[in-house]
Specification:
DNA polymerase, domain 1; two-stranded parallel ribbon
Length: about 130
C-alpha cells in the first residue's frame, strides 16, 4: 500500500512538472525569435554607425583643422583628442626648438605623441 502511494506521488509530481517543461520549450522558441530580431536591430545600428562615422569624417574635412605650425597649446588641446594643455605645450616647444613642421607625420617625433594618438588625430591636423 505504501508503495502505491509513492508511485502515485511520483506520477502526480511528474504531471505537475510537465506543463513547466512544455512552457519552457515554447518560451525557448520565443527567445530565439526575440534574439534574432535583436540581432537584426543591432545590425541596422552598426550600418547606421558606419554611415555616421563617414559623415563625421566629412564634417571634419569641412571644418577648420588645427594648424601644427600656428596653433597655440590651448588650441591644440581643444582640437585634438587625447591632448591636454601639457602635451599642447610640448608640441609648441618642439616646434619652437626644431622649426616648423614640414609633414604632419613629424608630430610623432614629439615626446609623448605615439602612433595611436597620431592616428586618432591625423584627420584633424594641417600644416
Amino acid at each position: 500500500m505504501q508503495r502505491l502511494s509513492i508511485t502515485t506521488m511520483v506520477l502526480a509530481l511528474g504531471l505537475a512538472v510537465m506543463p513547466l517543461s512544455i512552457q519552457a520549450a515554447s518560451d525557448g522558441g520565443a527567445k530565439n525569435t526575440a534574439s534574432s530580431s535583436l540581432e537584426k536591430s543591432v545590425g541596422k545600428e552598426k550600418s547606421a554607425g558606419k554611415a555616421s562615422a563617414k559623415e563625421t569624417e566629412k564634417g571634419l574635412a569641412e571644418e577648420e583643422k588645427v594648424s601644427l605650425n600656428n596653433a597655440s597649446a590651448e588650441e591644440l588641446a581643444k582640437a585634438l583628442n587625447g591632448v591636454g594643455i601639457k602635451k599642447g605645450q610640448t608640441i609648441v616647444e618642439y616646434r619652437s626648438e626644431m622649426g616648423p613642421f614640414t609633414k604632419i607625420e613629424q608630430l610623432q617625433e614629439v615626446p609623448g605623441i605615439g602612433p595611436s594618438l597620431f592616428q586618432r588625430n591625423q584627420n584633424r591636423l594641417k600644416l
